[in-house]
Design goal:
mainly alpha, 3 helices, 0% strand
Length: 53
């Protein structure tokens, strides 16, 4: 996952890069038992946004 954030460093300002980060997160969660990945991904990105501010 760290590689995705390094590859898309402007994800918090670029809708396209955020979309790519979301895709990477979905790929990671799809192999788990998570049934509703979207709320989890939203929470992850929101937390990271707050930390960066």
């Amino acid at each position: 996952m760290a590689q995705a954030f390094e590859f898309y460093p402007h994800w918090h300002r670029s809708a396209r890069q955020e979309s790519r980060i979301r895709l990477e997160l979905y790929k990671k969660l799809i192999d788990t038992v998570v049934k509703e990945a979207k709320p989890i991904i939203d929470q992850i990105l929101n937390l990271i946004r707050r930390v960066k501010q």
